Amino acid sequence: MSKKTIFWCKNCLNMSTRPRITFDSRGWCNACQWMEEKQVMDWTSRDKELEELLAKHKSKTGNFDCIVPVSGGKDGSYVAYTLKHKYGMNPLAITVRPALSLQIGDQNLSNFIHSGYNHIHLTPNPKVLDRLNKYGFIEKGFPYYGWLIAIMTAVIKTATNFKIPLLVYGEDGEIEYGGSTESKNKPLYDINYMKRVYLEGGHDKVFERIMKDGDISEADLSFFRFPTDDEISEVGLSFTHWSYFEPWDSYRNYVVAKEHCGLIEKDEGNLDTFTNFSQNDQALYALHAYLMYLKFGFGRATQDAGIEIRRGSMTRDQALNLVKMYDNAYPYDLIDTYLKYYNMSKEEFDAVLDNYANKELFEKIDGVWQPKFSPGEDFSI
After folding, report:
1. CB-CB contact of 146 with 129 (8 Å)
2. How many CB atoms lie within 10 A of CB 235?
3. Are 246 and 43 in contact (CB under 8 A)?
4. Cα gap 253→73, rounded to integer Å
5. What are phi and psi of 189, to 5 degrees?
6. What is the DSSP letter of 363?
7. Which one, of 68, 127, 134, 136, lies nearest residue 96 by Cα?
8. What residues are paired with 92 via a beta bridge?
9. pLDDT tens digits, one per residue of 327-356
10. Segment 230-250, tens digit of pLDDT
């Protein structure tokens, strides 16, 4: 069998193991290529597209003009603020309550709401959410899979019930961070894209498992099901990413959210990255980032460093040092929380981690998976 080389982007530190990522002849990943394109693009035409889209959906009856999913973090806050204060829209902000929310996340959401927004806090059946999260963890190595489903399905269901036809999400992570480029020049996307890319085509399998338990009904799953085609057509739903219409800058979003929406940062640093102002809404994100590391060889610090490199605030060498310091972050301080939440023993929990650890990239030493590779150095498997 011929060997395969694992390598890193020559500009940032995106790994060749990242799903759907591509590289050019220079060894630059598609996220870095998009960064170059954004710098020379004439955004005038896309701003015109945005104005036409917003004008089309501007309510003439005093209803909400659009929906913006928010967590209280920097990105949703920025989108809602910009829609309201730059474009004169009347957005309805919607939050799907996560499991194991963090105090700072709750405070940021409250600060955002009180900075002047209409808001709905959705709480899908916690019994179902917790079960889907557990089965997502076991079946897909995705520890908040139920919540991931709900931030699409529950929000869309609410849009159909309120007859609000435009949903504005933040960035398209595939384009901004390295992945499929199929939607790079498309202002709108659809539910099939959500299912195939964001849910990795696996939500039906998780539903099948939960239905076999016998104590969950179809009615219990209503907030976790996508609307029918007829329901979508009746309202004329459109889905878009704000990042299509202007150069996405997560640090700019942070500054705007801090100044205008009351965003606060953690006082202490994170175990798994050098930033303290993002992904502060729920405890399960740290486990998600660690599983990403075990599956693909890169963690939260690699992602954050790539963002900083592409916005010109960090060199690749600086980023490399931070990745070596932070990426391999077994979430020791949250293990008891996870075991209680999933109702698992430590052995059962570690068995799930073992199942998803990439044995070509990692070896287990003293009970913890350790990398066989050194970040930034090509590695043959």
Report:
1. yes
2. 17
3. yes
4. 9
5. -140, 175
6. E
7. 68
8. 67, 118
9. 999 999 999 999 999 999 999 999 999 999
10. 888 899 999 999 999 999 999
